[in-house]
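Table 4 source record.
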Amino acid sequence: MLSYRHAFHAGNHADILKHCILLQLLRYLNQKDKPYWYIDTHAGAGRYKLDSEHATKNAEFETGIGRLWHRSDLPAALADYLGLVRGMNTDGRLRNFPGSPWLASLAMRADDRLRLFELHSTDIRLLVKTFADQERRVACQQADGFLEIKSVLPPPPRRGLVLIDPAYEDKRDYLRVVAALKEGISRFATGTFAVWYPQLQRGDARQLPEKLKKLPVKWLHAKLTVMSPSADGFGMHGSGMFIVNPPWTLADTLAEVLPYLVRILASDDGAGYALEHSESLG
């Protein structure tokens, strides 16, 4: 189908949850001197202009990053994230916003490597342009990330983070996420895997995290709901992140971040959060 463009949704509540967790995972990997790879199965354009026609059409960033932009009471993990975004907007005006690959590139070190997959013909051109001056450390490929994940696992340094972040515009994506994660774990059992998913009223969206919890791995599941489900059954009312082999520090960090995000990003009384992990992390 390939109609999805993340530019329409850049900076929304789902990006805040995803990027905050992603940055914490990268910071943890940075604690060891040995290099690692970051692998993104659905990389998008890499970075976005919030004053573009795409972004301003629905202006989803206004109820996401926009609500955090001028706050001075951010928990440490969110302050770390906002610091990187503010570094892209040195005049203080919120116009430039990182996608997951650009955020990763900002956090990673010179010897670490990025392997980025994107199938959309427009976004792959933008992605290549975004990283045109980083060819030594970043490789962009127009390909189906679900299929290509096996080509880069295990990464040569045997350390890495894999982000599985499809658009879910095709309902088969829910099954493909489970299959890709199983494949990835079989090839790279010690790697860290992060799966983003939308909170929707459709059954396959609700069932996905329950299926992932059945995998024989250490996991952490964080869910941020910003509004009540719509009466007509359409639309995204929140999102979630499922992490395989999470850092031991992540649960405590999110226990501080998630209540704050509920308070700041809530649209109505239906907002809330969930944070749970496998017994082996307890």
